[in-house]
Amino acid sequence: MSASPRRPAGMRGPDKLVFLLALVPYLLEQRVVDVSEATAHFGVGEEEIRDAVRLIATSGLPGATGTYQPNDLFDIDWDSFEEDDVIVIVHHVAIDDAPRLSAREAAALIAGLQYLSASPENAGSASLAALTEKLRAGASAAPSRLAVAEEAADASLAVVRRAVASGRQLEFDYLNARGERRRRRVDPLRIASLGADWYLQAFDHLREEVRNFRIDRMSGLEVADEPIADHSDRAIPETLFQASDTDLEVVVDVAPATLPLLADYLADSTTTEVGGRLRVTLRLAHVHGLKRLVAGLPGLVTVVAPEEARAVVAEWAEAGLAGYPDGDPGASSTPADG
Fold first, then answer.
1. Quick one: 124 and 160 in the same domain?
2. 50 in a domain, yes or no?
3. Distance separating alpha carbons of residues 323 and 151, to the nearest angstrom
4. What pLDDT was estimated at residue 297?
5. Which helix (H) or strand (E) holds 322?
6. What is the extent of the structural domain holding 83?
7. Which stretches of 195-276 are assigned E, i.e. beta strand?
């Protein structure tokens, strides 16, 4: 859009841009707007509205010749504007060229909003409801109605959120990556997500330190009556994965685009290009953690060393392949070669 050196007093450049971007669709939606109505809607002065309308009327997109022709600019009903203080846009440009979401894209986003709306902290959120309606109205066709099914992990997540919000201790049976199940009692501190997985960061009464617990591995959750202790003097890690002297170092080749997804696990910033991929070293608490990491990035991660890690991932992939009765080779897209 073309620019004007004049700018309403008291409004900075970035604020003016945001204001104009909001004003144009507002005027198009309302069709006929009194300056006083626009003033009340945006909370600015009447002269600011008038200056903005004049700027819009001298803005547009240059045509094929690189110059501004009459049809390349916005136009308003000047008689109504100057005589009656009424804004009517009679010609607009570029707005109809904006890309719109397909029905399937809008349906997917709406399903995600429905999932968020189901969480306790978002219950009855007017913002999410308004955004959902905007997605329905702005799609290129009517979005399909999707039902978001609640999984067992969702129910557990709701209990964990309740414990965090109330500041009370939490008890649960926890199945770790080694297949060991044990009853735990913790002071829940923070909920975090990594990809599709939800984690609880909590002070573990058994280990007497802050630990991460994957919520889909919890069962038998009970919010206790006892309040959590004061942990204000305890450093809560910002990242889920924290290095330890007992960590296992694993060398992997990864697709370059995958590297940011592994940032929490990188032992250092050293990378070497090998056959179009990047060879990096990861630090993991134990070798079994590799299985889920590789599963989440099918075909994008190849374990190089140590041999123990290659064997664990290969065994896991072969067990998955064996679950197909006809041994469909298509199922081996997960890197079974370690």
1. no
2. yes
3. 23
4. 78
5. helix 307-322
6. 13-97
7. 197-204, 209-214, 218-227, 248-254, 272-274
